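Aim 2, interim progress: modelling of the flavin mononucleotide-bound target.
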Amino acid sequence: MNITVIYGVMHKGSTYHIVKLFLNRLTDDSDKIDEFFLPRDMDQNCCGCFSCFLNGENTCPHFDKVHPIAESLEKADLIILSSPVYVFSISGQLKSLLDHFGYQWMPHRPNKTMFSKVGLVISTAAGAGMKKANQNMKDNLFYWGVPKIYSYGKAVEAIGWENISHEKKNIIEREVNNLSRKIKKSVGRARPTLKTKILFSIMGLMQKKSKWNPTDRDYWEKNGWLTGGRPW
Ligand SMILES: Cc1cc2nc3c(=O)[nH]c(=O)nc-3n(C[C@H](O)[C@H](O)[C@H](O)COP(=O)(O)O)c2cc1C
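Predicted structure of the complex, ligand included:
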């Protein structure tokens, strides 16, 4: 199995350690794991030039930095997005990276490989905000087309892994084990839900009618999605 992990921060705190617990349960030596730390591996904000949407993603001024991550995501069977909760949301760095993948949201040019992948979103907070942060990451994966998305959020009541109580660490370990079993079963078996299928059809109708962006429309046409073809 190929796994792409995106860490929304550089430091190795509670979120990082929980990601590692998942990787430990989910993988063995035969698996390939690509890890990207932000902002080390992508340190640019979207500048709002619209070039990715209008002229193709390879014209993004930050293409050289985004491309290796895009390539890894394309090969992944499992995509893990992770972030500590910062003011009820994900880290700014992760938001900046995800903005760069707006072009591959379903209303634009979804990547057909996404429609069989599994996603896992992970966040930790001192007390609250995991639901909102996880929802943000889930929204991105969903609109990329990822059909099965798991989430794990934990209020750790701490500002670092070493400050988490032993009791809480035991609970985390149990929860990670249980969720990992489910994730393992679904990797390689995920299929689009009715919600994804309906949304995709609506996006197709929109592309048929719209002349706003020929780059998006040509993409849908070339893939045969305007004449009934589907990426799954
Ligand atoms: C800028 C900033 C904003 C934060 N916002 C929240 C918040 O909205 N809710 C919360 O419960 N904790 C908040 N925290 C605490 C962290 O989310 C929490 O300690 C988290 O577990 C840290 O994860 P890490 O060890 O992986 O860095 C914030 C911390 C920072 C530095």
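The mean pLDDT is 98. The first helix runs from residue 14 to 26.
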